Amino acid sequence: MRRLLPRSLPGWVLLILISGLLASQAATLLIASRERLASEKIVEFFRLDDRATSFVKLMSGASPAERKEMAASLSNSAYALDVSDTPQIAHPIPADEALAEFEDLLVGRLASYGVTDARVKREGADGSDISTGGPPQADPDAGAVERGLQSLSSDFSRTDRLIASIQFKDGQWLNIALPMTPASPVLTPSTLPWYGATAAIVVGLSLWALRRLTAPYRTIENAVKLVGDDLRGPALPETGSSEYRSAARAINAMRARLREYVEDREHLAAALAHDLRTPITRMRLRLEMLHDPEPKRMLSHDLEDIELIARSVIDYAKLEFNEEPSEMVDVWSMLDSIVDRYDQISYEGPDHFSPKLVCHAKPTALRRCLVNLIENAAIYGERARVTLSRSETHMTMTILDEGPGIPEDKLATVFRPFVRVETSRNRETGGSGLGLTIAQNFARHAGGEVTLRNRAEGGLCTTLTLPLAKMAGQPGGSVAA
Fold first, then answer.
1. Paired strand residues for 463
2. pLDDT of 109-128, one tens digit each?
3. 273, pLDDT greater than 80
4. Which terminal residue of the chain has fewer beta carbons within 10 Å of its beta carbon, N or C?
5. Can you give the residue ranges of every domain in the chain?
6. How far is CA 326 from CA 53, 74, 323, 360, in A?
7. What burial letters (b/e) apply to 53-78, b meaning 16+ CB within 10 Å?
8. How many percent of the chain have pLDDT more than 70?
């Protein structure tokens, strides 16, 4: 059951709206039907009162025999008249208060014409008592008006009827059987399309209004998703409804505070790394004055590690708030130029085959990301193979190395700053623990992702996915680099 329920705010609003519309339509139809039944009941009393008054006035001065002749001559398919010594309604007690009130009304109005008693009841349809020969047969050659009259006459023969027994002062009873007007249904084949069209128009206008109402909130949703990837993105417009303006102001303030915090942190790290260069330079000058080769070699190695850490921290800080503009970058050409510098990296396919895999990214940051991933594979994976593939919207670079891999419980933590896997990424082979962090941050800023997994046959599989730039005429397929 829960699977059938909507999961979004517009869906719930639309469901509530449609449910309310159906409920209100049903209630309106029910109320209209009850009101029409009540009004039709009064109309039927009026018709019976009019007929009874006319017949009583006509027969009040006639003899009993003349009354019977008049009743026989006046009876027709619309109503039945009968004059007898016994009433057609045997029980003098009416079925409800309305009938009792109507009986009293008849006696009071017709008392001056010699009426002493009146009885009224409602009886089920019985066509043989109302008309002679049954309902008329439809004539296929009849016109629209004639067919309508025939249909109405047929409906009268099947409807309920009101029966009135009126007693004259001489004891004779006038029995009147008046068929009630057929009640037309509230919903008919002709009115149903109008109800459906009205409901469709209401739902359509509601959908349009909901899309306009929720469009700012979709903008907020997208802005919140981008907070972790791009703190320097444009601020949300603070226009629209009061609720949206409040939410937009809160998100803009949150993004501004986060940006200030991250900027202060990154600037502090970059400043510390930059300030380390001066004492490192002095230490190198003093190192050259040492004559003992072993301490000199060890100190030189330590200084190289410090310099590597300082450069990595500066690169990491620059990547977070890089002012470099994005542009169209041919990933294949850039990757080809990087791979050529590493003998451990292999590629397949003819050299002249160079499909255009173009991304919209910052060139320097993209090169840094590719160099970090390929350099890791070259240093720690012993040998590696790089392949490029593409789909309709994304390109994927896959690096398959032959190294020892990474323990499964550390695959997620290696993307954190300064995290190393000592068994396979020891400091003697280089590395500051920021290479994968920089690569992943760039990929996420560009709308992609970097993932790691251990291969069943041994080694590590590194995957970089980036969105392709929207350019016509790009060939599909998969190639090796």
1. 398, 451
2. 899 998 999 999 988 765 43
3. no
4. N
5. 2-179, 325-480
6. 97, 99, 9, 6
7. bebbeebbeeeeeebbebbeeebebe
8. 78
Distances in Å between the alpha carbon of 302 and those of 287, 298, 380? 11, 6, 21
Task: Name, in order, each residue with C-beta under 8 angstroms of 10's C-beta and a sequence gap of 6 or more.
Answer: 210, 211, 214
Class of domain 325-480: alpha beta
Which residue bears the tokens 């009968």? 82
What residues pair up with 360 in beta bridges, in sequence order?
A: 328
Pairing of strands 115-123, 173-179: unpaired
Q: Is 346 left (phi over 0), alpha (psi -120 to 50) or beta?
A: beta
In degrees, to the nearest 5, what angle opens at C-alpha 123 toward C-alphas 122 and 125?
135
What is the tens place of the pLDDT at every residue in 339-358? 888 888 887 533 444 456 78
Instruction: Specify whether the CB–CB gap between 219 and 236 falls below 8 A.
Output: yes
Place of tokens 């014409």: 113
Q: How many CB atoms lie within 10 A of CB 420?
A: 17
pLDDT the model gives residue 319: 61
Among 363, 398, 397, 394, residue whose Cα is nearest residue 467 = 394
